[in-house]
Amino acid sequence: MTNPTERTLPANSMVEGPEREFGCTVMELRKLMELRSTDAVNQISAHYGGVMNLCSRLKTNPVEGLSGNPADLEKRKHVFGQNFIPPKKPKTFLELVWEALQDVTLIILEIAAIISLVLSFYRPPGDGNDQCGLPISSVEDEGEAETGWIEGAAILFSVIIVVLVTAFNDWSKEKQFRGLQNRIEKEQKFSVIRNGHIIQLPVAEIVVGDIAQIKYGDLLPADGILIQGNDLKIDESSLTGESDHVKKSVEKDPMLLSGTHVMEGSGRMVVTAVGINSQTGIIFTLLGASEGEEEEKKKKGKKQGVPENRNKAKTQDGVALEIQPLNSQEGIDNEEKEKKAAKLPKKEKSVLQGKLTRLAVQIGKAGLIMSAITVLVLILYFVIENFVILRRAWLPECTPIYIQYFVKFFIIGITVLVVAVPEGLPLAVTISLAYSVKKMMKDNNLVRHLDACETMGNATAICSDKTGTLTMNRMTVVQAYIGDTHYHQIPSPDALLPKVLDLIVNGISINSAYTSKILPPEKEGGLPRQVGNKTECALLGFVTDLKQDYHAVRNEMPEEKFCKVYTFNSVRKSMSTVVEKPSGGYRMYSKGASEILLRKCNRILDKKGEVVPFKNKDRDEMVRTVIEPMASEGLRTICVAYRDFNDGEPPWDNENEILTELTCIAVVGIEDPVRPEVPEAIAKCKRAGITVRMVTGDNINTARAIATKCGIIAPGDDFLCLEGKEFNRLIRNEKGEVEQEKLDKIWPKLRVLARSSPTDKHTLVKGIIDSTVGEQRQVVAVTGDGTNDGPALKKADVGFAMGIAGTDVAKEASDIILTDDNFTSIVKAVMWGRNVYDSISKFLQFQLTVNVVAVIVAFTGACITQDSPLKAVQMLWVNLIMDTFASLALATEPPTESLLKRRPYGRNKPLISRTMMKNILGHAVYQLTVIFFLVFAGEKFFDIDSGRKAPLHSPPSQHYTIIFNTFVLMQLFNEINSRKIHGERNVFSGIYHNLIFCTVVLGTFISQILIVEFGGKPFSCTKLTLSQWFWCLFIGIGELLWGQVISSIPTQSLKFLKEAGHGTTKEEITKDAEGLDEIDLAEMELRRGQILWFRGLNRIQTQIDVINTFQTGASFKGVLKRQTMGQHLDVKHVPSSSYVTVAPVRSPPTTSVPAAVPSPTLGNQSGQSVP
């Protein structure tokens, strides 16, 4: 790749050799690409003699492309550079170590350890001890006194381990991101013509001189100049900040820039600049510069003629560039989420991140207060006892000894703080997310933003596309209406008149993108492969089924001969191509959605192939007899039509006049079968409390038929199916603004939105997210594949883009890419997301039990015995090392199907539920009882020397070793208890599926044996006898039994328990309802009997209420309120028999009965009640 120094050399210096072969240099092309519109056109014609001459200078053929000769490609890469923007260097391991060292608690620990180390080497004069009257250690312990430095060293050593573990985690996370990024980049391919063939080439392989095919939805991978274009519009906002789409044409503005999006049309361009020489590349090089140089570079950049309006890109934080999809300037915004790891400030945290931060801050504050009190109590106790009660004088030679005591107190205080702050938390989150992301790859979810994975677990609604996600996106024409005849199978060619057949073949072959084609199957006996737009492939397949060859037609009529192309877009919903007729005049072929195109037809071909008038009543008749029956079978109906212009050339830009007075040739019904696994996946979503809504551009009958096949709607449900127009009429006020109140009446029941535009999709998603009706706020996931889905994907909490059918723009805006375009993968993502949430809750339950117990033990122990029963190094072992591994063990639990059997937590559900609080406090009670018993009565029980009130440097005692050992073993067995957080009794279920968990538990146990038996002075441990070990183990196993006792206590009876770690509450939820909404499996068994009663009562109540409501004409809200309460009591929704009666009621929209909307949209659309 040409390095930056080589680039900036003047054209005639050392690079001239190879560049002389091509008629222009890198710098000339760079200068050329900085020009816009007419300046560019003038420069190309003046300097190069037009685009075609430029192609010949670059030694490329505008039709055939490059030859693909490897030597030629290498030479081009050498002269003009590769299409690759080098990423910013990743942080080195040492930098990450340095970052990990910035942690406040660790810094305090280091300082304390260093002071302790320094003081331990200070020996006061021999006779000083008696005067000071403080026991340091007896004479026989002189050797031990020499080892006073060990504690300080051990603390430093543990700090080093923690720092290394953290740094290694960050490093591997960074590496994973890079891998992910490379994968996204490798997957980005582009259509390039080489040797006359269109091939899909990885973006990095594109070279200057390549001829690239561009079409709707592409993200341009390099700079180029347009050779031929149809109706091309580009979104250049990522480079210029201008939101309007820019029209491109060979005559007026042929300049195409990398990183911009094709919003409409198609064409071919010759590539003129790649990699760091492209416009995006230049900005990247400016951005990649270090902060200090950045200012100078900006000034230079402006002088060099980089337009002002680019500073939008420049001011972005350089860090964001670390992981970028190739050439995407917009990626900066997208990837910022991903770079939370790089400490980029981001406005809105993910749901979980928000809750965790709040919780960590609360715990941190509590820990700080506790540790400060501990230090104060210890110092005061010491001072009062020595200088007030015993009336000793402060002797100067005793000062170092006193200071040693104070440092010891300080270390105890820090230990309390270290234990109180859950360092393992960020680690657990990272491990859990990273592990899930890795595993989700196997489930066809390519996660682009880490937090999307966890947000998905909270999803309460999914707005899904139909085509390709719920259906197989393998379209085939199965019915046709030609010449007054409705064929239920594909007709044989003989059944059609030759001139009609000819019109059909030409109308389809010419009027479809030439990139759409049908290739022979990959495997023998397989289905033919469809490449390009699937609807067009279905129509081309229809031509092939009629025993005709569309290739021959296309060869006769290459794209160069087209007079005008009106490409498909979401507004037109049709495509038309105009060609010259051999006999003179023009013919336009059109195809599009039948109800849209038939409105523009005023003639139709009859049985004899003659053109006859086609009036409104004929159209209504045709809709009733042909289109609706096809649609009700779930077929998409496409109309093929044409129009002749015989009186000279009409004004092509006046689209409204051109696209009228068409003659209908045929209407075909295209089937796109539902994916076999979708109905089951949607049933799972329903069980999991997730509402699936279908948003599609198809007509309402097709959409409803498919929704019924998928199980999104079932006969007898109370639901709405709306068309985009009707939807807008219902939610907008007179001024045409969307009103949240109106939208709130509609979205809860809306299941199908048909004939919807991208704006409708965005409005719906935004409306659901902003809505505050219902007992919890909604978290919405959206799937999309088209360029126009970008806004909705960005707005959604989680955006899924299709990996196969999706355009680059959609992938760019998404959080997760579905590599198999399949709806079941979304359900897997929900499972993983919930698993992440649960894994973190499991870890929290474990960690907080350790914290509560350790803090209380250290605090009370210190206050009563002037010494914490658990030493600093022991605490570090428990808190930092064990927790790190526990987070690894609990964060890598594989998901189970049972995760899909509960309702989503939603935004405001606290992290620590009542059941978890019950477990934390319950286990803390057990552990504290045991430890305090051992501290104050352990020596009598085991018949050993007491370890309390030991002198400063005394050797470790068996007494305190037993306490430490018991404490660790209790944590170890509590780790097994923590595997379940919803009160399940069997804590061992599925434990063998998690090898990491088993390894960690065994590993920790073995390490504990080694520490106790061989840890000695650094760990303040001494060897234990076998019987003492058995007692410790027995008390540890007691944790499992105690867990069973706790799960027998119903959570409901413990009203005093509070949850912790709330999300941001947008509105208060009644606390009672919150408690009831929680899962406590042990309790559920007790409650099943009651539930049946409740259901019966609830049904009767609701039905009485409905009758009363209609008698009094009162508001419907009371009924709904009772409904939502019913949900909380695990009472299923009342079957909607009581609602269905609402359907025929035609009342003005002002009434508050949401179901009685005066539109043919309810239930089965005709307004009658559904059987």
UniProtKB/TrEMBL annotation:
GO molecular function, one term: calmodulin binding
Regions crossing the membrane: 368-389, 409-435, 843-864, 916-937, 957-974, 995-1016, 1028-1049
Major enzyme class: translocase
Gene3D superfamilies given in the database record: Calcium-transporting ATPase, cytoplasmic domain N, Calcium-transporting ATPase, cytoplasmic transduction domain A, Calcium-transporting ATPase, transmembrane domain, HAD superfamily/HAD-like
Protein origin, superkingdom: Eukaryota
Keywords linked to the UniProt accession: ATP-binding, Calcium, Calcium transport, Calmodulin-binding, Cell membrane, Cell projection, Cilium, Flagellum, Ion transport, Magnesium, Membrane, Metal-binding, Nucleotide-binding, Phosphoprotein, Translocase, Transmembrane, Transmembrane helix, Transport
Protein name as annotated: Calcium-transporting ATPase
